[in-house]
Amino acid sequence: MTTTQADIDREISDGQADGPHEIQPRLDYPPYRSSILRHPTKALHPIDPEGVELWSPCFGHSDVAEAEADLTIQHAGEPQGSRIVVAGRVLDGDGRPVPHQLVEIWQANAAGRYAHLRDQHPAPLDPNFTGQGRVLTDADGYYRFQTIQPGPYPWRNHLNAWRPAHIHFSLFGTDFTQRLITQMYFPGDPLFALDPIFQSVTDPKAREMLIARYDHDLTSPEYSLGYRWDIVLTGSHRTPLDTEEPS
Amino acid sequence: MSAAPGQTVGPFFHLGLPYEKGNELVPPGRAGAIRFHGRVLDGSGVPVPDAMIEIWQADPDGKILQQPGSLRRDGWTFTGFGRAATDADGHYWFSTLTPGPTEPGKPAFFAIAVFARGLLDRLFTRAYLPAPTDLDALLESVAEDRRGTLITAADDSGVVFDIHLQGPHETVFLSFPRHRGIWA
């Protein structure tokens, strides 16, 4: 039997009613079909971090060229679609900026197609857009990308399934336990309520943390719209007593 | 402040994350190089061909490094960080050095982060070197019948570490205090 959007809507609504609202996604979340055999069934084992876990890998200007923050200049021509700036600040769980750390993004093009062999849905590829970028945060934790507004796209979770437009973000903090990969969404997307990946976060306030806001101060006249997205990581486990340099 | 929720890496992460020599912390075949490898398996024991593993480790002397250069390897600098996507058979491999204990009397391990399509948030685990003689807080606190999921096995080229996302051999995955809002 084909699973319809109505079936998924019902499962999402049951999931909301079932148990407390959680800030992190439920790993066991059947409306996202691919998760069924890919989530741990046993409780995560609580443990204090030790050794390397209290530190993050270090990235520098030898790792990331400045041009990698502009996804619109990677080819000979201009990509199709609406130019946007996505900028904000990476903060740890205590509100401290995360300086000089790596931020990586990947995304679909304006038509909702990824430059990836596995994406074969019939929307055009853009020879002038790959959809991959990197940047290092500055001394105050700020990052900024110039890119193209990604389109929503279909997937095969169920019949007529569509993902809200999003940009994938990969982040590091100051210790390895803060490692985060997530997705940034755009305000007011009509597909939010229908999307099991977005709804796997059952706390509505927590879902809002994944939505950028339009920021006119980041908008450039006659050039591009601006979105602001601040990203809060979990707290660092390193205490102020720990040395500045690892042993 | 509460942390932003994670979201799955999805099926197209190869576009953004794996990079050239991401899995070669040292060039394969260099003196002292070992292969750290294994498979990622789902709850039916089927290999996961769209997973990604990150390792973060000390150097052979147990020193924790703060050395840039992981994204553009120069072939000489050991940074301690690596990233590998699984292949069609769910297999991943790294060419690296054997980590040393970061404190005397502590067993050495690789810190591991696991990502996959179908996995809504990253998972953390540790891969200890084979047959640890000293147990640490984690190895002591894990039931004996599951402890083996955290320990690598020696093979001809280095060490093997299979990661079971689910099933009878499910790997022990970790939660750190601040993931639960606790300041240890």
What this model shows, in words?
The complex is a heterodimer of chains A (247) and B (184). Chain A is mostly beta strands and 247 residues long. Helix content of chain A is 9%, strand content 22%. In chain A, the strands form three sheets. In chain A, strands 2, 5, 10, 11 and 12 form a five-stranded mixed sheet that branches. In chain A, strands 4-3-8-9 form a four-stranded antiparallel sheet, with no helix packed on it. Chain A has a two-stranded antiparallel ribbon with strand order 6-7. The mean pLDDT of chain A is 95. With 184 residues, chain B is mainly β. Chain B has one domain: Sandwich (Protocatechuate 3,4-Dioxygenase, subunit A), CATH 2.60.130. Chain B contains two helices and ten strands; from the N terminus they run E-E-E-E-E-E-H-H-E-E-E-E. In chain B, the strands form two sheets. In chain B, strands 1, 4, 7, 8 and 9 form a five-stranded mixed sheet that branches. At the A-B interface, strand 1, strand 3, strand 9 and strand 12 of A face strand 5, helix 1 and strand 10 of B. Chain A: Pfam families: Dioxygenase_C (PF00775), PCDO_beta_N (PF12391). Chain A: Keywords: Dioxygenase, Oxidoreductase.
Number of structural units classed as domains of chain A? 1
Number of strands of chain A: 12
Mean pLDDT of chain B: 96
Uncertain regions spanning at least 5 consecutive residues of chain A: none
Mean of all residue-level pLDDT scores of chain A: 95
Number of strands of chain B: 10
Which fold name fills CATH's third level, the topology of chain B?
Answer: Protocatechuate 3,4-Dioxygenase, subunit A
Cα distance, first to last residue of chain A?
59 Å
Coarse morphology of chain B: globular
User: What is the CATH superfamily label of chain B?
Assistant: Aromatic compound dioxygenase
Beta strand % of chain B: 25-35%
Q: Concise description?
A:
Chain A is mostly beta strands. Chain A has helices at 5-17, 196-199, 204-208, and strands at 45-46, 83-91, 102-107, 132-136, 142-148, 153-155, 161-163, 166-171, 180-185, 213-214, 225-228, 231-232.
